[in-house]
Amino acid sequence: MNFFPDAIVNRNATHSVASGRTGQPPSLIASLLANADWKFLGALFIFVYVVQAIYYCWFHQLCQVPGPFLARFSQAWRNIRYFKGTWLRDVTELHEKYGNVVRIAPNEVSFVDRDALRALYGHGKVSQKHPKLINRLLYRRYVPNMQISFFAATDIKLHRHLRSRVTAAYSMSSMLSMESLIQDVANQGWAKFRELVARGQPIELDKWVNYFTFDVVGTLALGGPLGMIQQEKDVDGIIGSIHDGFWLMANMGNMPLQMFWFNNPVAQWLIKKVGGKRLNAFSVFLDWLEVRVDSRMKNGLGGQRRDLLQHFIDAKDQSGNPVKKGDVMIEGVNILGAGADTTTVAILAVLGAVLQNPSHKQRLMAEIDQAYKDLGLTDKEEISFKDCENLPFLSAVVKESMRLHPSITYQLPRVLPAEGLQVGKYHFDQNVVCGISAASMNRSVDIFGPNASRWVPERWIAESEADKGRIGGMNRDLTTFGMGSRSCIGRNLALIEVHKYIAQFFRHFDAEIVNKDHPWVTKSQWFAIQRKFWVVLKERQH
């Protein structure tokens, strides 16, 4: 999955929104505030805002594009929904109401269009990540000397270099070489589930899947699990820190004048003093990670196996020199801060869909049981990823569930180049911000048919040559993992985890959703995370 947000920060930032590492507010600022003519400034602000609103509503080039009235002159329409965490639902309803081209902010449009998809995100395209929303100083604001990540790099050559130095670490061959480590974590999870079945109480399934994915990335990146499955809790508060940190960053990154309001010395001082746990959340995770990076860079592997962290440490910069600590920190943030939650969302999307469709669940269980029998697997042996890939209904269920509930649902904004972009009857000029959400794009009736909004895993099963052509077309425009040079670098790891988890879960367990009317609550905070997913777990007997 996409491991870090496309649009969370502003270029002009120089201080942390979350870390609170600032001193007292300077006396100069206090003096200016004390002597300001607030009535005049207030009147001037209102006048400028009204003039700007009139321009955006009736004279801007987007004035003919349909969309909510508030979105014509204010970013509030979009930002309110981001903060509420309802974007997964909002963006799909938005396009159902207004069509494939919708204005969601004064200078921003959202598309559900395959030509726009390829133009904005395809390989070799010249549209850029929104320059006001992407910032190479992001990481420096959280940890001293933090370097830029390829997720945030707007320079094409720099992005290519930064991505290339970690591509091998995330390759399918690299991930498969560590499949046994992933299986070890899964085995811990199944053993713990058997204990939970014996207790006879409902479990919050979303938490347990989150424990699994974090223990996996801990094992692959830091040499061992983080202990969440064994301790049955969010160890050191890392998950909560990351969730709260992403909620703040992803939402503040879309606020107008965000750095004026948040990243000034006065605001930073207030955040540190009275901001509370949520506003200072991400620094907890970063401090935790920094301790581990410092220890590894100082002491080395110490006879342990080579993990992803060591791969990041051994990488080279553009000049061929060893990377700095900031480069290593970035990659740690990428895999630990984003690599676990994206996979959690995917696994829960599949579990939720299957548990709500009993006939499909029975078909899936039958396919999995038959595979274990045909492969001659004993009670102590588990199915591999490669064997999971050969199960057509399992693969269809995974792909369909992730299509309707992608891990990343926020817009992925791009700023148009000089030639602009033609989408349907609309032509958009240079500097218009355009974007697509996987949540709405993956429901395109032009791509997935009239039942695009329904969960129908059979659409991915080919029974004729015509089906193969149709499925090939759907795969080309499926945006679950993004598209082009900035597609998800963690796709291979995610696919291995999801396929293995689903196959082994339904081999050994069944579950009944506690609240059938409202099975879970989805909160979009860059990731569309499912919460309060309560089930009664049952162990299957073979």
UniProtKB/TrEMBL annotation:
The record's PROSITE patterns line, in alphabetical order, gives: CYTOCHROME_P450
Entry-linked SUPFAM superfamilies: Cytochrome P450 (SSF48264)
Q: What does the record list as GO biological process?
A: secondary metabolite biosynthetic process
Answer yes or no on keyword Transmembrane helix.
Answer: yes
Q: Which cofactors does it use?
A: heme
This protein's source sits in the domain of life called: Eukaryota
Q: Which positions in this protein are listed as binding heme?
A: 488
InterPro entries assigned to the protein according to its UniProt record, in alphabetical order: Cyt_P450, Cyt_P450_CS, Cyt_P450_E_grp-I, Cyt_P450_sf, Cytochrome_P450_monoxygenase
Say yes or no: keyword Nucleotidyltransferase present. no
Where does the chain cross the membrane? 40-59
Q: Name one Pfam family in it.
A: p450
- Molecular functions per Gene Ontology: heme binding; iron ion binding; monooxygenase activity; oxidoreductase activity, acting on paired donors, with incorporation or reduction of molecular oxygen
Q: Which UniProt keywords apply?
A: Heme, Iron, Membrane, Metal-binding, Monooxygenase, Oxidoreductase, Transmembrane, Transmembrane helix
Q: Which family, according to UniProt?
A: Belongs to the cytochrome P450 family.
Its recorded name reads Cytochrome P450 oxidoreductase
